[in-house]
Write a structure and sequence with these properties.
298 residues, five-stranded mixed β-sheet, three-stranded antiparallel β-sheet, globular, alpha+beta, 4 helices, 19% strand
Length: 298
């Protein structure tokens, strides 16, 4: 006698239910994966800033001061000049302390301007220590001409970390006359920088280096190129707006991290400062001797 065998299979409704469940699970899993990846990228960013902090302390131990914000001189008279050269900035002087002597010793002539042909390899050299992995900007960028934004001055390596100039507007010092050093109330300025003894507000209360996204323009570790647009802002920042403020400009501190940006303090510690921080407290953390040490990050 013949018997009919029935085979069990998914109905169309069951198949659609399974697909819907899988879709929901994937939708729940992806944000968790992205959050884990961002946490790892932020940790790498913190580690980079800590290494920069150690390098700053080692530099200070050897030179009894932090590296100058940037070297701006009139090369004919050797007098201070904000728009002067060779332009090398604070980060470029830290390379030996970051185990990058191969760059500083073999690729950089600090006596010649950054744009000098002999320094081409150095100014375009991408240094991972100065890049935040959360930032999707290009590793190098073309610097627009200050007088003609459609023209480009040179190509520079990108950095996501800039020194703290303080609370003063950088634009206001660009007209500083020949022979005068343009100082600030922060950690780095023209031809000079703060000694640890100058931090009367306390090293642990004062920002020395902060994070900057490429969203509002590119920054660099190399230094200043006077012919370029916003040439000082490419290596230094101010606390005009809280971190990640929607009205931020190139000279502000920004990041691709949710809720805030990472900052290196004078004692070598790294903090994530919230986007919601009180602006007065934030600006107090930018000055080395403002007398506001009572302001502390919650």
């Amino acid at each position: 006698m013949n018997t009919l065998r029935s085979r069990r299979a998914f109905t169309l409704v069951e198949l659609l239910v399974v697909i819907a469940i899988i879709g929901i699970l994937v939708g729940l899993l992806l944000p968790a994966v992205q959050a884990a990846r961002e946490a790892a990228r932020r940790t790498a960013c913190v580690n980079s800033l800590k290494q920069i902090g150690v390098a700053l302390h080692n530099y200070h131990d050897l030179n009894l001061a932090q590296p100058p914000g940037w070297m701006g001189l009139d090369l004919k008279t050797n007098q201070p000049l904000v728009h002067g050269e060779p332009g090398w900035g604070w980060a470029s002087k830290l390379l030996p302390m970051l185990e990058l002597s191969n760059v500083s010793d073999r690729m950089i002539d600090y006596q010649r301007p950054i744009t000098d042909p002999v320094n081409q390899a150095a100014r375009e050299y991408v240094l991972p220590i100065f890049r935040c992995r959360s930032d999707t900007g290009r590793p190098t960028f073309l610097l627009p001409d200050a007088e003609n934004p459609q023209a480009m001055v040179t190509k520079l390596s990108t950095s996501n970390y800039v020194g703290m100039f303080g609370t003063l507007e950088i634009e206001e010092i660009e007209e500083t006359p020949l022979g005068v050093v343009a100082r600030s109330d922060g950690s780095f300025w023209h031809l000079d920088a703060a000694r640890f003894g100058d931090y009367l507000d306390g090293l642990s209360n004062t920002i020395v280096v902060g994070e900057r996204s490429s969203r509002y323009g590119y920054s660099t570790w190399t230094g200043t190129v006077p012919a370029g647009s916003e040439f000082i802002q490419r290596i230094l920042g101010i606390t005009d707006h809280p971190p990640n403020h929607p009205g931020a400009h190139l000279d502000d501190f920004t990041s691709e991290h949710p809720a805030g940006a990472n900052f290196l303090m004078g004692d070598g510690s790294v903090r994530l400062i919230s986007e919601t921080i009180d602006l007065n407290a934030y600006r107090a953390m930018a000055t080395r001797a403002g007398g506001e040490s009572g302001f502390k990050q919650e």
